[in-house]
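--- STAGE predict ---
source: upstream dedup step, 1 unique chain passed
mode: sequence only
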Amino acid sequence: MKIACLDFEGVLVPEIWVNLAHQTDIDELKVTTRDISDYDELMCYRLDVMKKYGLGYNELNMAANELQPLDGAVEFLNWLREHCQVAIISDTFYELAGPLLKTLGYPMTLCHRLEIGADGKIDDYCLRQKDPKRHSVKAFQNLNYEVIAAGDSYNDISMLEQAEQGIFFKPAEKVVKDYPEYPIANNYTELSEMIMALI
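--- STAGE serialize ---
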């Protein structure tokens, strides 16, 4: 039995923090997991930048609410769910992902939580567990699923490594250079064909 484990931002939806950078004209917020591989380091950096410019949850939530899924993402996800089980395994936060998950038909999603203070500032973040993407894949494997994983960035590598089959979806050149062993899908048609060949 197969299950497809997909990253969220960069695979199905645009990058929320990059949209915040565009809205606020703060280039420092354009940094993503394609630039900093350690997620804790990246989040500490992001929260420091937000404190520096006096930004809070409202600004970040507005940036998330303005986004729509990537072109073709809804159709791809609907197609995929007809052929196998699907789980979104992401380093995003439930407090931000809600509206986008609604547009995708509320797929099963495993991600993290933000800690928001009474003043609307983001005090901290709470990771679901250490190395969550690898552990999620392992858990499905313990349930006798074979996992096909697709991601676009450094924080997806542990998921791709653990899965029976790992696929890059439109990754950055830097990521491909560091991990040349994974096949690359440049669009949903190619990703669909790769997955179909596996299932």
